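User: Can you predict the 3D structure of diguanylate cyclase? Sequence below.
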Amino acid sequence: MTDTSQIQLVNALRKAVSRTSLLAEGNDPELDHAVRQIRLQISKGADATAIQAILDNVEPLLLKVDEARLTRAKHFRETLHDLIDILDHHGQQVPQSQKNAFESAIRSHWQSVPHWPSLLKEYLALIEASLAHNAQVETKKAPLIARLFKRAQPAKTKLNNQEVLQQVRHTLIGLLSNLALPSDYDEQISELKNTLAQNKNFNDFPKILDELIALIMIAIGNTQEGLTSYLNELNKQLASINDSIVKSYRSQKSLSESREGLNTSMQKQVQEAANAVQQADDLDSLKALINERMANISDTMAQYRKQMLAQEKMSTQSISLLKSKVTRMEKDTSSLRTSLQEKLAQAMTDALTDLPNRAAYQDTILPLCSNSLANGSPLSLAICDIDFFKQVNDTWGHLAGDKVLRLVPRQIRNVLAASDLLFRYGGEEFVIVFPGTPLSDAQQRAEAIRKEVEKAPFNVNGEPVSITVSIGLAELTQENYETFFSRADKQLYSAKEAGRNKVMVDNPET
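Assistant: Sure. Here are the predicted structure tokens for diguanylate cyclase:
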């Protein structure tokens, strides 16, 4: 390969690396530090091997940045699902077609940060549609007495709206806390959090949400600006690395030329010695001539040996440096793997109850359904909701509510089999998956859970408090996991409407 071809190949590789590096999200302190280290090593004249070893160390940092991006995206996805749940759980009749379209948009775009503002706008439209739908329903269904005494009816609607707004405020404050913005925006974020916490007027909510969308757009722009800056720096460093690679190639080529030169020189000197021997007139002149030629050959060999020793020393140093970098990279990789595993476990675990959370459920249920349908083995699912949980919070405070949320899973575990799976789905709602369990057996277990929770000793300030749960149950048929969940969820609401503290079963055969 010629020098020109080598340079063209390296330039093409540099462009390819630059373009594929668009997958990275710059503006990360550790990644910026790594880039500075590359620049520093190049300025010191480090060879291509050393620079490559440093670049290899950047890979775990890119993985870390990508994992952080995915974690933020998962948090945003869960926030949107929580916002939908808030409407469902507070008596808001959400238009099903619009809700399905919104959930489909979440599934398609939750990982794409530029789509986040449009998703929030869709949720705002869903709220407005829900309120309009409920207003129409109330107007149609209101009895004569309620229509005559209109002042008594709005109070309940207003209370429900305030409950919804309170939950939405709490969820959006969590989203703000997870938003990656420079410190210059700390004051603005703090003010918006205070506004969310204090504002009780539903009419102001669109304006607040618009401001949140603007902050998300700033975060997107800031990420892109940081990424552009990072890529420009990376291009400069890759250009320098290109020069180092070309110099290394030329050095290697020079060494090859030295070997060829040694061979040519030796052949020439041997030939000259042979010619001199033939032309020598006497023994003394022949000895002198041979000594001269041998001295020249010895000098040539000494120079070549000196060059080879220098090259060997340089190679030994490069190999030693590479071994050191590889060892450090292995340690960094091991540390990063452990850190990623810990972060993944944290992302899949509910902090209050230490149960697998909704994200863990989503990752688990699809393969379970696929295996069940493929193998013909039964799979049952129960949705368990704590009755009158809001009253516990309102009467005794959130600490008491948290205590209930920790107590109920302990009681549920007393009944579950080793293969059963328990998740905190959100709020006061838990999901139980019964692999390999037919509906009749799952129903017996669900009844045992209901009784176990009902008899659980729970006291607040020495006063006994009754805690019960309502449970909806279904067994998987030829359907997707969303329909499966929906059937169990429908039975949960039937249990609520039937007076709570009940187990309702979806039985397709009846």
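The domain at 358-506 is CATH 3.30.70.270 (Alpha-Beta Plaits). The chain has three domains: 1-254, 255-342, 358-506.
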